[in-house]
Amino acid sequence: MGRITGLDAASPLFRSNHFREKNKKLDRTDARYVDVLHTDASPFLADGFGLWEPIGHADFFPNGGQQQPGCRDRRSSVLITQLGKR
Q1: On the CB side of 47, how many CA atoms lie within 13 Å of its CA?
Q2: Locate the Lipase domain: which residues (predicted)?
């Protein structure tokens, strides 16, 4: 494939060892050119749902890759919902 553009690649299920395998998630070997925008990234799940580490040939982190200005913060409500299901 020539090019793939990843938009805010998901992180929550891809932090475990099983999903860290390269064939289970987007990475730079999936196309001749992979560019990725990280707009809700964090090394900690509580702070963001996007992948923090670079995974493409070119990775862009607008606003430092963290929550974008003007966007509502839904992380706490999602975490509370998920924790309540246990």
Answers
A1: 9
A2: 1-81
Contact indicator for 60, 39 with CB cutoff of 8 Å: no
DSSP H helical segments within 1-84, as ranges?
75-84
User: Cα separation of 59 and 51, whole Å?
Assistant: 11
Instruction: Count the alpha carbons within 13 Å of 26 in the hemisphere toward its beta carbon.
Output: 27
What is the model's pTM? 0.65
Structure tokens at 63: 């606003």
Residue-wise pLDDT for 23-72, tens only, equals 678 889 999 999 998 887 766 655 566 777 888 999 998 887 777 777 76
> Residue 75, class by beta-carbon neighbours within 10 Å (0-12 exposed, 13-18 middle, 19+ buried)?
middle
φ, ψ of residue 37 to 5 degrees: the values are -105, 125
SS3 63: helix
